[in-house]
């Protein structure tokens, strides 16, 4: 049995059932390193050089810290990760010590685009946020992606500011 980053009981069977039978929506697993996870993530941003050891260490740190809900869609016929997304839960003092969810790193492998997988990832992360009692979910994106996220039920609000502290 794989070791997952969070309990798989948070995965919606309704959302899973909307996928093709060969696709499995599940939490990120400790043994996903050799399943093309970085082939997928590199289509989103720079990943850098990451060894299997470093991947496992990061996985264990995230699991230990809690609050990280990274989901993967695996093409079980190919044994490859074809989609990923993360919900990070922030503990707040606002809203009666509420929780805010941050949706991050949404990516679908280019070989699988146009199959509504991105929509399923967002739906699943929204489901987890609701199950965990988040009072809001936040997602930052490029302007060109706004129409997609609006179709997923998110609305444009406020402005993001960024400061990169490393190159």
UniProtKB/TrEMBL annotation:
GO biological process, any: UDP-N-acetylglucosamine biosynthetic process
Keywords recorded for this protein, A-Z: Acyltransferase, Endoplasmic reticulum, Membrane, Transferase
Localization per Swiss-Prot or TrEMBL: Endomembrane system; Endoplasmic reticulum membrane
GO cellular component: endoplasmic reticulum membrane
Main location: membrane
Associated pathway: Nucleotide-sugar biosynthesis; UDP-N-acetyl-alpha-D-glucosamine biosynthesis; N-acetyl-alpha-D-glucosamine 1-phosphate from alpha-D-glucosamine 6-phosphate (route I): step 1/2
SUPFAM superfamilies membership: Acyl-CoA N-acyltransferases (Nat)
Subunit structure: Homodimer.
Name under which the protein is recorded: Glucosamine 6-phosphate N-acetyltransferase
Species per Swiss-Prot/TrEMBL record: Rhizophagus irregularis
